[in-house]
Design brief:
Structural class: alpha/beta
Number of domains: 2
CATH class of the largest domain: Alpha Beta
Number of strands: 16
Bound molecules: 5-S-methyl-1-O-phosphono-5-thio-D-ribulose
Low-confidence stretches: none
Strand content: 15-25%
Oligomer: single chain
Helix content: 40-55%
Order of helices and strands: EEEHHHHHEHHEHEHEEEHEEHEEEEEH
Largest sheet: 7 strands, mixed
Shape: globular
Mean pLDDT: 98
C-alpha cells in the first residue's frame, strides 16, 4: 500500500486519522495543506514524517517561480522552515530536510535543482524501505518460533512509508514461517495501536490481540509476553529512546518481568548530536485529544490536561536497538557509533 505518492502535480496521501473505519486518500496541492496533514497525524510515524517532509520540499520547490538560484534557495529555505515547525520530536523530519537542502545547494540551475529534489524523494523512499527490510532480517533473528510480542503505538508500514520497523521485525519473523502473535497496546490518546497496528496486523494475517495500555503489566506477569518490540522517534547517542507516550512504562514493566525490550529504528532516527535523552524535545499536544475521543467529550469541560506525545526510555531498559546496520547493545555510545559507520 502506498501511503504517500505523487499524483501529477499533487501529493496523494492516505489519511491515517480515518483508519480503520475509512480508507480515504487526500490530494494535497500546497505546503499549508501538507503541514496541516503532518500536524494532525494524517501521516505520522518518524520515518514517514521524514518522507512527507521530503515530498513537501519538492512540492514547495516546484511552486517557486524564479530563475535566480539565490532567490529560489532563499524561498526554498522558508518552505523548509515551515515544514520543520510541524512536529518537534521525530528527528527524521529534520534529517530528511537537511538531506534535501544539501541536494538543493549542489544544483547549478533552478530547473536542475527541481529535478534533483524530485529524484532525492525517490531515493529517500527507496532507502527507507530497504532499511526497514534489513532491520526486519536482523530483528527476526531475535524472535523465536511461538513468541508473543507486545508492541506499543504503530511502527509499521504506515509509519515509515516502507516495510515497517518494529512491525517489520514481526512481519519478517512471520514470513520466515515462525508462528508469532502480537499483543497491541491501544495507545491512548490517539489510539494508533487500536486503529492502525491492529488493522495492519490483521491485513498481514498475523494474529493480534488488542489490549488497553494499562493491561500490559498484567499480561507480562501472567507469562503471556515473550518480548516487546517498539519503534522510535529519536534516539540519543547514549541509546536513550524517545517513542510514543507509554513506551517508558512498557520498558520498565518488561525489565521487572525479565522480558527483552527491543527498539527497531533506522540510523536516521539516531541523533548523534544529543548526548542523552534529556535533550530530546518532547511535543505537547492539544488537550482536546485527551478530553475527547473523535468528536465525543469524555472529560469535564475545563479540566486541566497534560499531553506529552512522547516519553524517553533510558537505555538501561533497552535490551537491544535493531538498525539496518545490525543490532546494537549496551554500551550504546560505542555500538551506535559503529552503526553510523555502517
Ligand atoms: O505521534 P505518532 O503517531 O507520529 O508517533 C509514532 C511513534 O511513536 C512511532 O512508534 C515511531 O514514530 C516509530 S515509527 C516507525
Amino acid at each position: 500500500m502506498k501511503i504517500i505518492e505523487w499524483q501529477g502535480e499533487n501529493i496523494r496521501m492516505l489519511d491515517q486519522t480515518r483508519l480503520p473505519l475509512e480508507e480515504i486518500y487526500l490530494e494535497l496541492t500546497d505546503i499549508p495543506a501538507l503541514c496541516e496533514a503532518i500536524k494532525a497525524l494524517r501521516i505520522r510515524g518518524a520515518p514517514a514524517i521524514g518522507v512527507a517532509a521530503a515530498y513537501g520540499l519538492a512540492l514547495g520547490a516546484n511552486a517557486i517561480n524564479s530563475d535566480s538560484k539565490e532567490d529560489f534557495l532563499s524561498k526554498l529555505s522558508e518552505v523548509s522552515e515551515t515544514l520543520a515547525a510541524t512536529r518537534p520530536t521525530a528527528v527524521n523530519l529534520f534529517w530528511a530536510l537537511d538531506r534535501m537542502n544539501r541536494v538543493a545547494q549542489q544544483g547549478s540551475s533552478v530547473s536542475e535543482i527541481k529535478e534533483a529534489l524530485m529524484n532525492e524523494v525517490k531515493f529517500i523512499e527507496q532507502e527507507t524501505d530497504e532499511a526497514d527490510r534489513k532491520m526486519g532480517q536482523f530483528g527476526a533473528d531475535l524472535i523465536e518460533d511461538g513468541f508473543t510480542i507486545l508492541t506499543h503505538c504503530n511502527a509499521g508500514a504506515l509509519a515509515t512509508a516502507g516495510y515497517g520497523t518494529a512491525l517489520g521485525v514481526i512481519k519478517a519473523a512471520h514470513e520466515q514461517g515462525k508462528k508469532v502473535q502480537v499483543f497491541a497496546d491501544e495507545t491512548r490518546p490517539l489510539l494508533q495501536g487500536a486503529r492502525i497496528t491492529a488493522w495492519e496486523m490483521m491485513k498481514e494475517g498475523i494474529p493480534v490481540t488488542l489490549i488497553t495500555d494499562n493491561m500490559a503489566g498484567h499480561f507480562m506477569k501472567a507469562g503471556k509476553i515473550d518480548c516487546a518490540v517498539v519503534g522510535a522517534d529519536r534516539i540519543a547517542a547514549n541509546g536513550d529512546v524517545a517513542n510514543k507516550i507509554g513506551t517508558y512504562s512498557v520498558a520498565v514493566l518488561a525489565k521487572e518481568h525479565s522480558i527483552p525490550f527491543y527498539v527497531a529504528a533506522p540510523v536516521s532516527t539516531i541523533d548523534y548530536s544529543l548526548k542523552s535523552g534529556d535533550e530530546i524535545p518532547i511535543e505537547e499536544r492539544d488537550p482536546i485529544e485527551v478530553t475527547c475521543i473523535r468528536d465525543v467529550r469524555i472529560a469535564p469541560e475545563g479540566v486541566k490536561v497534560a499531553s506529552p506525545a512522547f516519553d524517553v526510555t533510558p537505555h538501561k531498559y533497552v535490551s537491544a536497538i535493531i538498525t539496518e546496520q545490525g543490532v546494537a547493545r549496551d554500551p550504546y555510545t560505542q555500538s551506535l557509533e559503529r552503526m553510523r559507520a555502517g
